[in-house]
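Quick one, C-alpha cells below. Sequence please?
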C-alpha cells in the first residue's frame, strides 16, 4: 500500500508540474497574484518557472498519495506483487486519463465562458488583475482538474474493486 501511495504521489506531483507550466502560460497573474502567495512558504527565490513547477508539485502530490493509498488498500489483500503493480498502474492510468479530460474540459469551459465576467469582479478587485478572462480560464482549468481527478479516482476504485473480486 505504501509503494502504491508513494507512486501515486510522484505521478500526481509530476502531473502538477506539467499542468501548472501549461496554465502559467495562459495566465501568469493566476500565479503571481494568487498561487505564489498561497505557497509563499515554499519560495526559495528560484526563477519564476521553477517556482511554478514547485507550486504544481505541492498542490497535487497529496491527491496522488491519497488516491494511491485507497487503490493500494483495495488491491493489496488478495494478490501477489506483480498483479498488484500491473493493476495499480492501470488504475493510475484511468485516473490520469480522466484528470486530463477534466483539465481540457475546464480549458474549453473557460474559453466559452462568455463576455460577462461580473461574477468575477471580486477577484479582479481583490487581486488587481489586468487580464480577468485569462485568470478565469485558468481557474476553470484548475477546478476542473481536481474534479477530473476525483472522478478518475472513483473510476479507478471501481476498476480495482472489480479486478480484485476476480482474483
Amino acid at each position: 500500500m505504501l509503494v502504491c501511495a508513494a507512486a501515486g504521489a510522484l505521478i500526481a506531483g509530476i502531473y502538477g508540474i506539467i499542468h501548472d507550466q501549461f496554465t502559467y502560460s495562459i495566465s501568469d497573474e493566476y500565479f503571481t497574484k494568487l498561487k505564489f502567495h498561497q505557497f509563499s512558504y515554499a519560495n526559495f527565490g528560484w526563477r519564476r518557472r521553477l517556482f511554478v513547477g514547485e507550486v504544481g508539485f505541492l498542490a497535487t502530490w497529496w491527491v496522488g498519495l491519497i488516491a494511491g493509498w485507497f487503490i493500494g488498500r483495495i488491491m493489496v489483500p488478495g494478490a501477489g506483487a506483480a498483479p498488484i503493480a500491473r493493476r495499480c498502474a492501470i488504475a493510475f492510468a484511468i485516473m490520469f486519463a480522466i484528470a486530463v479530460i477534466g483539465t481540457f474540459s475546464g480549458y474549453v469551459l473557460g474559453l466559452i465562458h462568455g463576455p460577462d465576467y461580473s461574477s468575477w469582479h471580486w477577484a479582479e478587485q481583490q487581486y488587481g488583475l489586468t487580464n480577468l478572462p485569462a485568470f478565469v480560464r485558468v481557474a476553470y482549468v484548475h477546478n476542473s482538474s481536481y474534479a477530473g481527478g476525483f472522478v478518475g479516482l472513483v473510476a479507478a476504485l471501481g476498476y480495482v474493486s472489480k479486478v480484485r473480486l476476480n482474483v
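The mean pLDDT is 93. The chain is about 80% helix and 0% strand.
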